[in-house]
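In response to the reviewer comment on reproducibility (Comment 2.3), we provide here a single inverse folding case reported in full, input and output, so that an independent group could reproduce the run without further information from us. The structure tokens appear first.
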């Protein structure tokens, strides 16, 4: 069946949500890409930015401005549950979204937390990345418990610092193999995953031209600069690759010299 006529995956038990104070247009693009593949029980953009031009199927929710990445973590850990009434939430950031809804597995919903695995950990507490993650409402509620130790980054607080305590409460983390079928990040493949997270994947997922247009509109380019070498390895293959790579190197240098500290 032609993709243009393929029915969307229907997930009434999942709320799609993004929380941001910067990169609003890129966050909106990630939400729209995901909604083009999946019909959710609800879809929300939580932001202090301009909410006047959102598509009608996306609910706009005004929140206070988050001035630091730490403030983002605290909001997700302490306040996100207030905006989710379904059994699960799919949390996305500007640099990740659904790739192919046909790779959805019903067993994803059997777990309370799924995010791409962290290859740097080998102790079994390696699931996982929060930038494209599926979380149960039970987990969101547990994160507000006085017994939960809040810290930044929020995904490490959930997946490592508090994992043993969360599991003692009966919450389930997906096994590594299933997590990597859910999301591609550092340790898994784009051509096998339901979704992805990571700016370095975006030239492949979007194409070099679309990625570059998005890049130029970003207010917070921290994650792009962090993985500039990987991004350039994809951009250099394009017809404008050399000039774009040179511009990226220059932008990163200017950012470093200015000592900028971007917000989430």
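Designed residues, in position order:
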């Amino acid at each position: 069946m032609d993709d243009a006529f393929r029915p969307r995956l229907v997930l009434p038990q999942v709320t799609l949500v993004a929380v941001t104070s910067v990169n609003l247009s890129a966050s909106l693009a990630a939400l729209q890409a995901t909604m083009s593949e999946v019909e959710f029980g609800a879809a929300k953009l939580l932001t202090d930015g301009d909410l006047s031009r959102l598509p009608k199927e996306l609910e706009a929710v005004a929140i206070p401005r988050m001035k630091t990445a730490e403030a983002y973590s605290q909001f997700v850990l302490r306040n996100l549950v207030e905006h989710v009434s379904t059994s699960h939430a799919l949390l996305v950031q500007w640099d990740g979204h659904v790739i192919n809804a046909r790779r959805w597995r019903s067993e994803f919903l059997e777990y309370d937390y799924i995010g791409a695995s962290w290859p740097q950990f080998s102790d079994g507490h390696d699931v996982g990345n929060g930038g494209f993650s599926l979380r149960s409402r039970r987990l969101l509620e547990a994160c507000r418990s006085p017994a939960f130790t809040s810290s930044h980054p929020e995904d490490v607080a959930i997946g490592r610092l508090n994992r043993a305590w969360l599991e003692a409460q009966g919450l389930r983390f997906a096994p590594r193999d299933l997590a990597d079928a859910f999301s591609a990040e550092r340790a898994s493949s784009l051509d096998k995953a339901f979704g992805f997270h990571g700016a370095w994947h975006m030239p492949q997922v979007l194409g070099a031209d679309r990625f570059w247009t998005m890049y130029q509109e970003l207010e917070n380019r921290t994650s792009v600069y962090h993985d500039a070498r990987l991004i350039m390895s994809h951009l250099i293959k394009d017809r404008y690759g050399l000039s774009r790579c040179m511009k990226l190197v220059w932008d990163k240098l200017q950012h470093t010299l200015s000592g900028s500290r971007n917000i989430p």
